[in-house]
Amino acid sequence: MKTAVVYYRVSDKDQLKGISMEVQRDSCTKWAKVNDYKVKGIYGDEAKTGTKTIGRHGFEDAIIHCQKEKIDSLLVIDTDRFARDEIDHFASKAVLRNCKTRIIAVNQPMIDETPEGRLMETVLIGINAFYSRLTGRKVKKSLEKKWEDGIYPSWAPLGYLNINKGTEEKPHRVIEIDPTKGPMVVECFKMYASGNYSLLQLSKRMYKKGFTARNGKTICDSSLQKILTNTFYYGWMKWSGMEKYGIHKPLISKTLFDQCQLIAAKHRQFLIRERKHNFLLRGVVFCQKHKSRLTAEWHYYHHDHYRKDKIGYYHCHFQGGCPGSYIDTEELEKRVANLIKNYQFDEEFIELVKQKVRDQLAKDRKTIESEKQGIINRKKAIESKRDNVEDLLVEGALDRDSYQRQHLKLQGEIDMLDGEMSELENKRNVDIKLIDEVLALTRNIYQTYMDASPNLKRHYLKFFFEAIYIDGKKIAKVVETPIFSTLRRQHHIIIRSNWLPVIDSIRTFVGGISLAE
Question: What is the distance between the alpha carbons of residues 496 and 341, in angstroms, rounded to a whole number?
Answer without folding.
Answer: 9
